[in-house]
Amino acid sequence: MKHFALDAALRRVVPTVAALAVTAGMSFAVTAQEATEDSADLPIVYVLATGGTIAGQGASAVRPAEYQGAQLSGNELVDAIPELAQLADTRVVQISNVGSPSMTFVEWKALAEEANRLLNSEEENVAGIVVTHGTNTLEETAYFLNLTVKSEKPVVVIGAQRPATALSADGPYNLYTAVRLAADPVAVGRGVMVAMNEEINSARDVFKSDTYRVEAFRSGDLGFLGYIDTDKITFYREPLQRHTINSEFDISTIDELPQVEIVYSYVEASGLPITAFAEAGVEGLVIAGHGAGGNSPAQTTAIDELREAGNEMIVVRSNHTGNGRVLDRAGNFERLVLHADNLQPKKARILLQLALATTDDPAEIQRMLSEY
Questions:
Q1: What is the pairing mode between strands 314-319 and 89-98?
Q2: Using one digit for the tens of pLDDT, what is the confidence trace for 101-114?
Q3: DSSP 333
Q4: Cα dihedral 269, 275, 277, 279 in deg (nearest 10)
Q5: Residues classed as catalytic
Q6: What is the dihedral of CA 357, 149, 132, 340, to 10 degrees?
Q7: Percent helix / strand / coil, the chain, rounded to 5
Q8: What is the spatial distance between Cα 298 and Cα 233, in angstroms, rounded to a whole number?
């Protein structure tokens, strides 16, 4: 089997002590806001910082698109919001400090294991976790955590569309409302959430829908879970697919993920990428299909030729429309072509990776694609 290795990217996980802790199974150093007389009575919320635009800085306050991400530490982000001390005993764990396109399984595993350690510790008053993250891959990290964090306590993933130095930066308020959400008992049992712009999305459904606007995250036709308003936090629906405490995936037993790639479908899409990925030893492939998960004739031919040659790479049909389910089609299962229900291609890839790390039974993998 060909896998993504865990060791090469460790140099990007900072601080160095934290990187060593990942491999040794130890905990990260934790820092907190200065204690107050009332802090002992407040819920504890851990902020796991990874970098991104929310930690970015630029030379101009009025040119927010010109900046360098991942410049500020999690402590600096928290210390800039003294009002957090009224909400929770906020403690920071610096997992990494990178732009979100540089996220890898190394950071994902570190996040999931640290979240599990903190949320399931014997420490009293731990209410939840906030993850600060770059927005470009935020939805992928959130869904990975949704499948691997083993707790009913809330995990809230946030980022920012404008760097910290921008006029009217959105990061500080996103962080404030995220801590508020993580500390509120009403958020228990909702799975991993993405909460930005006062809008709460399910990690399973959410996707980034805009390049620069602050209202960048949406959940398509399914809509928000709820809102974080001044008076209270309100939920209107719940995620019903399996997640977090009910997930069967155990990240502590997975040191590397099988390689799964995505192929896009369009008019006259070539079958060459499918053939090339299979010959390179890729174990799974997600097709971001058009319409209801369709693909081009050349892509279909490429899959059929692989099967004739005895190649058993799992193929999963999804769609790039943003909404709607992909249904099963007669004869597809026999060709090892599965379907992703309404999962977006990037989410289907993550689920397929975890599934392949657990089993090679196509029926079991299809069950997982349907249940999560």
A1: unpaired
A2: 999 999 999 999 99
A3: G
A4: -170
A5: 53
A6: 50
A7: 35, 20, 45
A8: 50
